[in-house]
Specification:
Rossmann fold, alpha/beta, single chain, disordered N terminus, 14% strand, 43% helix, 7-stranded mixed beta sheet, 15 helices
Length: 427
């Protein structure tokens, strides 16, 4: 026990812990290890948005934001240690960018009464606010994403997927396994065969998996990958001449870092997109003026405008808007984590508000409620143009199949409630 406490104390010193800050937002980041290619741009976008608010606006509601960054290396145990090391400093909300860490933090934040915001990752059934009071995963979750892809494929095949074979190449972890229940239900509904192809972490070796794909000849390959796994999978698909236009990743398998290593061979690869990317949004002019150009950027400044930088920025934007909502509801600026939970639950992001924030037509509008912590669950499809080194959106937002997803959410959240003796709220 003494050794464990000493380790936690040492970790706390490495987390750049501030004195009690006005608005303290921990960033459980990972800039090292095989998943750093995704962790670095996300952390930079997250940090830079709050720096923008501090430098341009004087913070949020007159209160400065202090981001406390703690390195997890995408390791669940380290992530929990970072949580324990930072929660006592007035932490308002956690956004760990890890499904494994999220699963471990859900019971902890419920006891400590600190919101957990997991946009597009984490435990899917946390969308049910009647059970998961302290967790929010809007605007979309993994089961939405799986349904969105199948919805796109139905559109590409005249509404009929019967007799098709669809392979799922997935990170063999809680994260990668998340879409399997949805895809299994959708396979039963639409008559396609689902082929499961797990890839052990970190995913640098996939030759046997792609030999299986070459043998099975699936009509489509879906990917739930992260970090180095994505780039390796795309290269292996190219090696067996699998048609890239039939290879579709989740939104965590659709960044520039995933496709650039394969060069021209990645041309035509597709992925889900939760939001827009690129720098054609007014907010980027402010980021350049107040943050990057002013020498206050979180990283080297080379990730600005990339998909995952934009996603980190988007997460920070949603958190900041939840803070504003909470300040409005409470009538004071120096809010608490308990008060912020109410702000997350009352949050509405409209298209008009996104335009005011310099992000017009960037993401889907949503409105949370006591029962709905998950949002509308829509996503677009983007496709990689290797010659231009650019992602192009090729569809509008696609709506998930709620007839399939909602019963799965209800069943999984009810099982969690029974296991943990949680009574439904929002009655």
């Amino acid at each position: 026990m003494k050794t464990r406490l000493t380790a936690l104390a040492a970790l706390a010193l490495t987390c750049a812990t501030p004195a009690l800050a006005d608005l303290n937002i921990p960033n459980l980041s990972y800039r090292t290890g095989p998943f750093a290619a995704g962790g670095i741009p996300y952390a930079d976008g997250f940090n830079d948005y709050f720096t923008l608010l501090n430098e341009r606006d004087g913070g949020i509601g007159g209160e400065k934001v202090v981001v406390t960054e703690c390195e997890t290396a995408y390791n669940t145990e380290k992530g929990v240690e970072c949580y324990e090391a930072t929660k006592g400093n007035g932490a308002l909300v956690y956004n760990p960018l890890s499904t494994g860490i999220t699963y471990q933090l859900i019971p902890k934040v419920s006891v400590d009464k600190i919101p957990l915001y997991t946009p597009g990752y984490g435990r899917t059934s946390a969308a049910n606010g009647k059970i998961f009071e302290w967790v929010f995963n809007y605007p979309a979750n993994y089961w939405d994403g799986a349904s969105d892809i199948v919805g796109y494929l139905l559109g590409e095949n005249g509404g009929d997927l019967s007799g098709k074979k669809i392979a799922l190449v997935y990170h063999n972890s809680a994260y990668g396994k998340e879409p399997i229940p949805t895809l299994t239900a959708l396979a039963a509904k639409h008559g396609f065969t689902l082929i499961e192809v797990p890839v052990d972490s970190p995913g640098q070796e996939q030759k046997s998996q792609w030999l299986q794909i070459r043998r099975d000849k699936p009509d489509y390959v879906l990917m739930w990958g992260w970090g180095v796994m994505n780039a390796v999978a795309i290269q292996e698909a190219a090696n067996i001449n699998y048609p890239m236009e039939n290879f579709i990743g989740v939104w965590w398998s659709g960044s520039e870092n995933d496709v650039l290593p394969a060069g021209d061979a990645a041309n035509g690869y597709k992925s889900l997109a939760m939001h827009g990317s690129g720098m054609d949004y007014p907010v980027y002019a402010d980021l350049e003026k107040f943050v990057v150009g002013a020498g206050k950027a979180s990283g080297a400044g080379d990730q600005v405008g990339t998909v995952l930088y934009s996603r980190g920025m988007y997460a920070a934007m949603v958190i900041s808007e939840a803070i504003r909502k909470t300040q409005e509801m409470t009538g004071h600026a120096a809010i608490t984590a308990v008060e912020l939970r109410d702000g997350f639950e009352a949050l509405e992001i409209t298209e008009a508000r996104m335009a005011e924030l310099g992000l017009p037509n960037f993401g889907q509008p949503f409105a949370a409620s006591c029962t709905d912590h998950g949002g509308p669950g829509q996503a677009m499809i983007q496709q990689w143009d290797a010659s231009a080194k650019k992602w192009n959106l090729i569809t509008p937002f696609i709506a998930p199949d709620e007839e399939v997803i909602q019963p799965l959410v209800d069943a999984d959240s009810a099982a969690f409630a029974a296991e943990n003796n949680i009574a439904e709220r929002c009655n």
